[in-house]
Design a protein that fits this description.
about 700 residues, five-stranded parallel sheet, three-stranded antiparallel sheet, about 50% helix, PrkA family serine protein kinase
Length: about 700
């Protein structure tokens, strides 16, 4: 028998060979579970553990703050913002939930700063962190991602936390229901709360001496009413011998956050006011225990309210400001006093990061309501705007496509960027400085304005926020709308037998569907159509640039022209002469040649010295670094030289051949298609852009 036969796959026809056995899957799961998850430990062990590793006893703000740092950070010097890798790279999900855009990371940075301030006890721990933004800005997804990482963090050794359970209660408490012989801490409280405050403070003082952190450990909570009842009964039985109580009736267990099990993470959604009451937040009577324990017995209370479930972790309020005013009153004590007050029950201490999310209309409505003054005073608003850099916006659409089952289709160059450009245009405030166009502002935000341009990006951003109702980027079309149109354009292209998606196809869907989108105000439609024309014009320039590169690109000639340009620039700066290539004679720098290059970048005559000095400085820096001059390495100079070469050659190009479908098999045209495919186009997409750019160039030639 041959080796090939021995190694053959014996999977029956129609079956799929399994690459993961049950044993392998089981082992992977077991490794993902904390080793001590099922292990009960004595209280004495916990006392030793928290002194040795005080972070185990952190409060919710401290643990969430450390969580962001745990997954890594990166400082963006240009924006002056710390990027948290859980959002900028999403290591847990292989980048599936990556967030893009300077504005978004500024918002995340602000959110974390407020949590970190709360961790230090500076005040924000007593405030609701209110994420305010337009629909589809990503605030809900960020909130979701934080909850997922908190779950993962509490499973790790760095994020571990513990709670306790009461055991063998029936042996002491006569009327204890046998079903309640072992009872877990109803609020998942830290075992330290079992110590009276005076003794607890002694332990915490020792912990803080050993703690290496920017915060100190504090815990002044009281036991929840049910645990308080058990403690009183057991202390009476053992004649106030606390050691006997803790050794005989308390076990310390690992606590892992799990939103699905409503443990340390809870989400709360507004419902119809007739079907929602405050007990959903604070808990209610456990009617199944009333017959056992009687009315007003703390053991007959059901700690199933959202605030109870979120204790030690994160409370997330979806569309928070849609709640009725009466519900929002419960948040006053929950945030400021860090307590809740269930109906007919004593106050209960809570420890959690309270996060709320809301859209713009609800915020405007509540902001002007004098009866909401107390609530507004207890919130820390964090603006969560749309992305304002169109290339970052394009990454959002690429992420959407990566996370979906996209048909076999080629996305042409500029398709995502031009879609992003349209989205960003709808979000920006028109510049108040008449010398700056809206397109220039967009490019400044995108980082395309260099040091020779008299455009101050920082000033533009400050002015945009001043002019806007709340902040720039809080209005406009969402990435969700643009993504939907891209999806439709993809399916329409497949339906028409086109294996590629071009910017022109995306523009068509924008134009056809703007009026049909319910979130776009009718008075904005004319403005948005005008923006779409600006995007078309920008794409025309890029398409022509790509065709120019394909038709007239000559690397050797660009290098020769680049060297000539630099020789004349250096002679101009040093006020010397340059040797003529043909005659060998010394001559003055050729100003006509210099300007023929610079005008291709629209460098005005009064700015030529700045541009020349910029290029000279760049060459000098590269020389100091040991790098030789190559115009290909300077984007602006390269583009200028390419455009000059194009001007020199375009009169010899038959643009009618670009548009004519009858010459598709022409050798020269095929070479142009090949040159465009090297730039990332598909063959059909290359033919489309050749026809489009050819028609535009031919039109401009006629106009000239």
């Amino acid at each position: 028998m041959s080796d090939q036969t021995e190694n053959a796959d014996h999977t029956a026809p129609g079956e799929v060979a399994s690459t993961h056995t049950l044993a392998e899957l089981s082992e992977k799961y077991r490794r993902s579970v904390p080793e001590d998850l099922r292990e009960a430990k004595p209280f004495a062990w916990y006392l030793e553990e928290v002194v040795a590793d005080p972070r185990v006893a952190r409060n919710a703000h401290q643990r969430v703050a450390d969580m962001f740092d745990h997954y890594g950070t990166r400082y963006d010097e240009d924006a002056g913002v710390v990027e948290y890798l859980l959002a900028s790279e999403d290591p847990l999900h292989d980048g599936e939930n990556t967030f893009y855009g300077r504005e978004v990371h500024e918002s995340i940075h602000e959110f974390v700063n407020k949590v970190k301030s709360g961790a230090r006890g500076l005040g924000p721990e007593k405030r609701i962190k209110l994420l305010l933004g337009p629909v589809g800005s990503g605030k809900s997804h960020f909130d979701w991602l934080v909850r997922r990482y908190f779950e993962d963090y509490t499973r790790s050794d760095a994020g571990r936390m513990y709670t306790f359970r009461w055991t063998d209660l029936c042996s002491v408490i006569e009327d204890q229901d046998p079903a309640d012989d072992t009872v877990r801490s109803a609020m998942n409280q830290d075992p330290l709360v079992l110590l009276p405050q005076e003794q607890r403070d002694e332990v915490i003082a020792a912990m803080n001496e050993a703690l290496d952190a920017p915060y100190t450990i504090r815990n002044e909570q009281s036991l929840d009413p049910a645990s308080g009842f058990y403690m009183d009964e057991l202390l009476a039985h053992y004649e106030d011998d606390l050691q006997q109580v803790l050794e005989n009736h308390v076990e310390v267990v690992r606590l892992v956050a799990d939103e699905n099990q409503r443990r340390c993470i809870e989400t709360f959604e507004p419902k119809d006011k007739k079907n929602q009451d405050e007990t959903e937040l604070t808990g209610d009577v456990n009617y199944s225990k009333l017959a056992v324990y009687g009315e007003n017995d703390p053991r007959a209370f059901d700690y199933a309210g959202a605030f109870c479930n979120a204790n030690r972790g994160i409370f997330s309020g979806e569309e928070l400001l849609k709640l009725q005013r009466e519900f929002l009153y419960d948040f006053l004590h929950a945030s400021q006093e860090q307590t809740i007050k269930p109906r007919n029950n004593p106050r209960i201490d809570i420890d959690q990061v309270i996060v709320g999310r809301t859209n713009m209309p609800e915020y405007r409505d509540k902001k002007g309501d004098e009866k909401m003054e107390a609530f507004n005073d207890r919130t820390k608003r964090i603006d969560y705007p749309y992305v304002l850099e169109y290339e970052q916006e394009a990454e959002i659409y690429r992420k959407m496509l990566r996370n979906a089952d996209v048909p076999d289709i080629h996305i042409e160059p500029h398709a995502m960027e031009m879609a992003g450009l349209f989205g960003v245009l709808t979000r920006l405030e028109e510049p108040t400085d008449e010398s700056v166009s809206l397109i220039q502002k967009v490019k400044a935000y995108n980082g395309e304005i260099d040091e020779t341009d008299e455009i101050d990006e920082r000033k533009l951003r400050e002015n945009g926020d001043q002019v806007a109702d709340i902040a720039e980027g809080m209005e406009g079309v969402s990435a969700r709308f643009v993504g939907d149109e891209i999806a439709e354009a993809i399916m329409d292209s497949r339906h028409r037998g086109r294996g590629y998606l071009s910017p022109l196809a995306v523009f068509k869907h924008f134009e056809n569907n703007l009026e049909n989108h319910g979130s776009i105000p009718e008075e904005k439609l004319d403005t948005y159509h005008r923006y779409l024309e600006l995007v078309r014009e920008e794409y025309k320039e890029r398409a022509i640039e790509d065709v120019r590169h394909a038709l007239a690109y000559d690397l050797d000639e660009i290098r020769r022209q680049g060297e000539k340009y630099m020789d004349h620039v250096m002679a101009y700066i040093d006020d010397t002469t340059v040797e003529d290539d043909l005659t060998g004679r010394e001559q003055e720098p050729d100003e006509t040649f210099l300007r023929s290059v610079e005008e291709k970048l629209e460098v005005p005559g009064d700015r030529k010295d700045d541009f020349r000095q910029e290029v000279a400085n760049w060459v000098s820096r590269r020389a100091r670094e040991g790098s030789s001059f190559d115009p290909q390495n300077n984007d602006r100079l390269r583009r200028a030289l390419e455009r000059k070469l194009w001007e020199d050659k375009k009169h010899n190009i038959n643009f009618s051949a670009l548009v004519s479908a009858g010459e598709l098999d022409d050798d020269e045209r095929s070479a142009w298609v090949d040159a465009l495919t090297e730039q990332g186009y598909s063959e059909d997409g290359a033919r489309e852009v050749l026809e489009f750019a050819g028609a535009e160039v031919a039109k401009s030639e006629l106009e000239d």
